[in-house]
Amino acid sequence: TKLLSFDTRMATADEVKTQVLSLIGSNPSGHQDKSIREKVCNLLTQYSACDGVDVDTDVLFAIGANVYGFEVKKKSVPDIAAATAKPPDIIIDFEYMKVFMKEVFLSYGVPEDRAETCSDVLIEADKRGIDSHGLGRLKPIYCDRIDAGILSPSMPIDVINETETTALIDGNLGMGLYIGPHCMNMAIEKAKKYGVGFVACKNSTHYGIAGYYATMASDAGCIGFTGTNARPSIAPTFGVEPMLGTNPLVFGIPTHDDFPFVIDCATSVNQRGKIERYAREGKETPRGAVIDNEGIERTDTEGILRDMVLGKCALTPLGGAGDAMGGYKGYGWATTVELLCTALQSGPFGDDICGVDRATGKPKPMPLGHFFLAINIEAMCPLETFKKNSSSLLTALRGSMKSPAGPGRIWTAGEPENDARVKRMGQGGMNVPVSLQKNMVVLRDVRPGLAEKYSKLPFE
User: Fold this and answer.
1) Which of 61, 93, 136, 293, by CA, is between 20 and 30 Å from 172?
2) Which range (64-78, 106-120, 235-249, 268-282) has the least confidence?
């Protein structure tokens, strides 16, 4: 059995989390070993005391409680909402939040123009109601990875190969939040000149909501198409090993409506974030969304989260496990995205982009691939004619017969996000839950120059 020494110095949350994951990953049967259980519990106690760690939402504590017998205790720190006598979730203006995120990026050395772009991608997710990819990603996905040395705040963007209509780009492991917009802009420029533009990218990183890039194209009078691979989560049909990312396949199409048609969704039934939400809500995971190494379709949410860390279960593709409900279709689409993100780029996949060194348990870079396609509509027909035609179909779909058992409304892709935007603009901004308020406080207190600019945050 492999044991890790307990680090008694004042370690950061990321360092302690890495120790926990390494200990669990290096000892798959450690829950049966008293010494391992004690070490996991000791590390979780240390982790729970770190700044910015929320014992209510961090899945490690659920795993610790259910598998290793860890007793979750609340931190003995003042509750922000109670201390300020304000509701737990408060509304903060979008512009304020965008500027805050931009200032955080600037504090890491991201150049002004790139920091502006990065913050715009994130705030757009919050405007659309995609809270999992906005402010909620700022600290854990970008800041923490920069701090861990597996993400560079700013790197050159190199052109490897280029023709009038195509390009292959190397992002050099910089932030996907500025690499993505650069690539789609290049595709749009080529499309406007030659009718079509296709750009593939290698050595990028998490690029935010894929719908941002499809919308860039639709706003420019183009049909947009994009996708990205991600850490392995999906098992092939009739398989059980996580091999493919949740790989979104995303289109953006201009319309005469107040919003474009934008289909932005993963090629898996569920994503890990939704399963974590089931855990917070005490709900079972729907059958067919997760399969384990024994081929069993799992519903025990806490056990699923534990075994996902241990590599003992995987997400299923759209359609679910097997072929009864067409799971092979989702598997095929996920594979299509993976191919377009690796074959042109000679890029890595599987364990090579899992983000963890299997031998040491330490974080490692995740070099992702993306692709971006823009088709200039006016190369084939007037843009207004196209918009009229597309809206005619979409209006017919929304006006078709409703199910008496349904909500009484039919949506088309992009409409729910527009509903969220209208609602949030009307209420004056975005809801910021206590967990993200805590992240903002941590970033304000540790990043150079932010304490002076944000001596008092809106919820303080």
Assistant:
1) 136
2) 64-78
